[in-house]
Amino acid sequence: MAAEGYAIWCDLTELLGGEDFWKDIEDVLGERAAKFLFVTSKVSTKKGGVLQELTVAKRVAKKLKMDDFVIPIHIDDCDTNIEISRVNYVPFDSSWAKLRIESIFAI
């Protein structure tokens, strides 16, 4: 996404150590985020911290009155988390390039 010109925030690149990371996450979601891409996988949907981020993102979505603030992205055949089971997801279980080519030809 960054290569396409989008400004992104990712904990792996933005959190360096010693920060109050929950404050940083809440600040980014509440003040700077245009969308929250929730990557769902067999691992992520079971992790407490990831689910807490989803809770914060859903609270921000409600405050902003943006039904499409949280965008789930499936990367494997995980069970859908009950928190987002009503929301359309983007299938990423195949490659990004394949998905992009399919979407170009669907236009």
What does this entry show, briefly?
The protein has 107 residues and is an alpha/beta fold.
Q: How would you describe this protein?
A:
This protein has 107 residues and is of the alpha/beta class. 41% of the residues lie in helices and 11% in strands. The protein has helices at 11-14, 21-32, 48-64, 96-106; strands at residues 36-40, 70-74, 90-91. Helix 2 (21-32) runs parallel beside helix 3 (48-64).
Write the layout of secondary structure elements.
Blueprint lengths: L10 H4 L6 H12 L3 E5 L7 H17 L5 E5 L15 E2 L4 H11 L1
Parallel strand pairs: 1-2, 2-3
Provide keyphrases for this structure.
single chain; globular; 107 residues; disordered C terminus; 4 helices; alpha/beta
